[in-house]
Amino acid sequence: MKEQKLLLIPGPSPVVDRILEALAQPTVSHISPQMEKELGGALENMKKIVFTTSGQPFIVAGAGTLAMEIALLNIVADQDRVLVLSQGYFGNRMAEICEAFDIKYHLLQSPWGRVVTAEELRTELKKHKYEIVVCTHVDTATGACAPVREYAEVIRQVAPEALFVVDGVCATGGIEERMDDWGIDVILTAAQKCLGAPPGLAIDVFSKRAMDKRRQLHRVKAYYADILRWLPVMENPNRYFSTPCVNEIRAFYEATRIVLEEGLDRRFERHDRLASVIRSGLSSLGFSIFTDETCLAATLSAVRYPEGLDDVSFRRKLYENGVVVAGGLGPVAGQVFRLGHMGNLTREQVIFAFDAIEKTLLNLGYAFTLGDGVETVRSLLVR
Ligand SMILES: Cc1ncc(COP(=O)(O)O)c(C=O)c1O
């Protein structure tokens, strides 16, 4: 294994050589035939990745948080009310964005480690009228995966005129999101998680309904984040609004090709399988999972420490042993660590990770049976 740390934080995920090579290609003009092919190609690939034929994708320099602003600011009218469903840190960030732009909203939260149920959503939609409903598919702070398809069903039944926005930053490209079939109006995501590209791109896909809503809005509280300024570029990459991050787009185009080459069903299945194998390996070493069994995410795990293991020492030693994981956020800081298992993660990398975890437990004098973790994942991860 090359002398670099294995990134098992909840994004960025490990970037494979083929994508790094695309990133390292010469910087070309942003209105060149290469950009036309690669930005155009990445946009088409994104439509396939979220299962839409009529949706309009946007790929803009920025991060997932910009994608959140783009999603909201381009569909909210002054008098609109937004229902924000939250199961953690990033659901709450959507509420903060509403605050920042004086958008009327109501925050419906679940306890950390659980999700708002479809029935709780139904009850709320029966009580109040909302023009927009926003959810977080996977909240990276809690590892909880929301029932997006059920939410879409309830919205279609109880509030069919409401636009449905899904934050897929920690899900798109790793967990199924069927925009047209389920009736999702905006999917927002970023390059650096399940899509396996380096960070630096905000990605939004707008349904026809959402595009119509934008066109109805006389103006929006945005300039750079205004999709009608970017639309001509997305329709024809030879046009200019603001200089796109050329090399990042070259890398992202390659990343979307890798996703489609693997095949979406196979990729979703691989994320599911890796998630359960990794959790089995962790429990064989005495760790437990913080998130409720009913809403475990395929893309990351929030892992509770067993008695006697200190968060900072564990993560520091694991880093020395070649693997990077993330600490807990907010109320669970110090009690859990977050292990990302998304993107183009391989069997060999998972085995390497468990070898490093066992070395770390040994270094910290924690009592366990050496090899249990590695053998558990190796035996479950048949070639
Ligand atoms: C669910 C979710 N939404 C939004 C974001 C924000 O993305 P970024 O850090 O790229 O701004 C994150 C980042 O981890 C996330 O996990």
TrEMBL record:
Residues binding substrate: 338
Keyword Transferase: yes
Superkingdom as given in the UniProt entry: Bacteria
Modified residues (N6-(pyridoxal phosphate)lysine): 193
GO terms of biological process kind: glycine biosynthetic process, by transamination of glyoxylate
Gene Ontology molecular function terms on file: alanine-glyoxylate transaminase activity; L-serine-pyruvate transaminase activity
Keywords: Aminotransferase, Pyridoxal phosphate, Transferase
Every Aminotransferase class V domain range: 26-328
Cofactor(s) the record lists: pyridoxal 5'-phosphate
Homology family: Belongs to the class-V pyridoxal-phosphate-dependent aminotransferase family.
Name recorded for this polypeptide: Serine--glyoxylate aminotransferase
Species whose genome carries this gene: Candidatus Saccharicenans subterraneus
Phylogenetic placement of the source organism: Bacteria, Candidatus Aminicenantota, Candidatus Aminicenantia, Candidatus Aminicenantales, Candidatus Saccharicenantaceae
